[in-house]
Amino acid sequence: MKRRKTFVLLTAACLAAFTFMACSKSDKKDDEPSTPKEEAGKIPGLGEAPGTPQGTALTYPAGVSLTADKIYGEVCDTAYEVGSGGVVEICAAFTNSNAADVTFTLPAGLVILADDLTYQHGLLIQDFKVVLKAKRTTRVGIKLYCLNAERKPSNSGMTYKIGPVSSSPLIRQLCENVKNKKVARSEFADEDQYFMASTSIQGLVWGYTDGDGFDAAVLAQLLAEIPNR
């Protein structure tokens, strides 16, 4: 219950931040050197744009596989958790058939696709390493940022699948902008600090997926609100 309340508060705070950023955006020039050649709010499959999220397939290490075709939303029955955010959460099981442990990197830009398109897709904002024990199946809770502001957050009745590693220039640039920022809960002294950073990151994601993007000054201000490592 505490987690669900936190997600509701996070969503409300992000929507408020998203509204502020949409109002703060100034006209961007097409020749701005730092602007990827892609239009915010019109990225296929993200926000309310039609289509399917584009990118490359996730590559698994030799001997590692996803245990089941369907992945369920909500919190795993395990203490093993990676990622950042919380509006979208899934529980994925990976099997390591090797005789030795394997460290598997879930890459920044990985998209988790909701099977029901009234629910939000999720984005992994940084690389996260998962240690998979030899000859075992490991259940991993993965926290993600929402890619569709107007849709419903994850729940235990919703199913997901592993999608592509996004090739969107705007999403790739966002992942690059936050790669040296603190994003995981373990990097913060308390829940409030983590909540504030997560809110800022979610607002950035929605600015590209559901909004009009940012001018350089607003983007710099928002990134400055997220602590560096």
SSE blueprint:
Layout: H1 2-24, E1 55-56, E2 64-66, E3 71-73, E4 81-83, E5 88-96, E6 102-106, E7 110-114, E8 122-123, E9 128-132, E10 136-146, E11 159-166, H2 169-177, H3 191-209, H4 216-224
Parallel strand pairs: 4-10
Antiparallel strand pairs: 1-11, 2-5, 3-5, 3-11, 5-10, 6-9, 7-8, 7-11, 8-10
Could you explain the architecture of this structure?
The protein has helices spanning 2-24, 169-177, 191-209, 216-224; strands at 55-56, 64-66, 71-73, 81-83, 88-96, 102-106, 110-114, 122-123, 128-132, 136-146, 159-166. By secondary structure, the chain is of the alpha+beta class. The strands form two sheets. Strands 3-5-10-8-7-11 form a six-stranded antiparallel barrel. A hairpin with a 7-residue loop joins strand 7 (110-114) and strand 8. The longest helix has 23 residues, at 2-24. The model is unreliable at 1-9 and 22-33 (pLDDT under 50).
Question: Poorly predicted ranges (pLDDT <50, ≥5 residues)?
Answer: 1-9, 22-33
Rg measurement, Å: 17 Å
Average pLDDT figure: 88
- Strand and helix order: HEEEEEEEEEEEHHH
Silhouette: globular
Termini distance? 31 Å
Give me the oligomer status: single chain
Biggest sheet, in brief? 6 strands, antiparallel, barrel
What share of residues is helical?
Answer: 25-40%
- Which secondary-structure class do the elements indicate? alpha+beta
The total of helices stands at 4
Neighbour order of strands in the largest sheet: 3-5-10-8-7-11
- Indicate the proportion of strand residues: 15-25%
Number of strands: 11
